[in-house]
Each structure stands twice: as C-alpha cells, then as structure tokens.
Amino acid sequence: MHVKTLYKRLIGTVMGCAFSFVASAELVLVVHPTNDASLDVKAAQRIFLGKENKFSNGKEAIPINQSPDSTHRSSFDTNTLGRSSTQVAAYWSKLVFTGKGIPPKEVSTDSEVIAIVADNQNAIGYVDSASVTSAVKAIPLN
Predict the structure, then answer these.
(1) Can you say whether residue 50 is alpha, beta or left, with left for phi > 0 and alpha for psi between -120 and 50 degrees?
(2) Does 132 reside within a domain?
(3) How many helices (H) does the chain have, and how many strands (E)?
(4) Looking at residue 7, what is its pLDDT?
(5) Would residue 58 count as lying in a domain?
(6) What's the confidence (pLDDT) of residue 15?
(7) CA dihedral sign of residues 116, 122, 127, 129
(8) 8 A C-beta contact, residue 35 and residue 126
(9) Domains in the chain: how many in total?
(10) Helix residue ranges per DSSP H, the chain
(11) Is 3 within the bounds of a domain?
(12) I want to staple 138 with a disulfide (CB 3.0 to 4.6 A). Which of 26, 44, 70, 132 is the partner?
C-alpha cells in the first residue's frame, strides 16, 4: 500500500470519528435551578409543541428553541419531538396561520439558552450536556 493511500485512509477515519462524536452529543433539558416541576420527554413534547403552557407545578412554561440550522435542534426535533425539523416547521406554520399558537423563541447557541433559562424561572430549553453550568438545572432526556 502506498504511503499516500494510507495517509488518505487515516485522515478519512479521523474525520469520520470526529463527525460521529459531534453527532452523538447528549442533549439535556435545562430549567431554572428553582424549578421544582417534574419533567419527562412527554412533558417536553407538549411544551415545545405548544400543547401545554404550564409546568406540572402550575407555573408558566416558556420554551426556548435552538435555531433551525443547529444540529441540536435537528436532534431534539427528531429524538424528542418525534418529527423531522421540516415537520415541526410545518406544524408551527399551521398553528401561526390559524392563530392557534406562537412558536418558541429561537436562539443560536447553548450559552444563549443557558443565559435565558438562568434569568427566567419559567424558561425551559435544551443544550448539549457538556455545556451545562451551575446556573441551570439539567434534566436528562432519556
């Protein structure tokens, strides 16, 4: 085997491992540390699809979404909401058009989600578990 061929295969393997590592980020829900509501995947689905606007403790729930081009958003839509990002966008378009809902606020980064949740006791978002700080409480999605 030629050195160039071996080198190309090695680079390809390293790149593949790097991409699979990024794609396998573990998402967690984040809420304000004082939020004592019980949350699970079903509750997150209902809140992020606008079917529920309160936590189990009766307090208002304000969902914070990541931007549509975020890999976290795609993963959350597919794995938590059980729909593709295209399906979620169509769902919200229909609700907005009929006046039956307003989609969650969107931000671009994990740090923005954490900042909003840390400042608002009613906010709920999702981030990579590696991004969680002491300013928020993390709740596993699995």
Answers:
(1) left
(2) yes
(3) 5, 5
(4) 47
(5) yes
(6) 44
(7) positive
(8) no
(9) 1
(10) 3-23, 41-48, 71-79, 85-97, 110-119
(11) no
(12) 132
Query: Does residue 15 belong to any structural domain of this protein?
Result: no
CATH code of 75's domain: 3.40.190.10
Q: How many residues does the chain have?
A: 142
Q: How do the pLDDT tens digits run along the chain, 142 residues long?
A: 555 554 445 454 444 444 434 445 799 999 999 999 999 999 999 999 999 999 999 999 999 999 999 989 999 999 999 999 999 999 999 999 999 999 999 999 999 999 999 999 999 999 999 999 999 999 998 7
What is the extent of the structural domain holding 65? Answer: 26-140
Residues contacting 140, CB < 8 A, separation 6+: 26, 28, 29, 129
- The CA-atom distances, in angstroms, between 117 and each of 70, 82, 120 are 18, 24, 5
Q: Which two tokens mark 110?
A: 């994990």
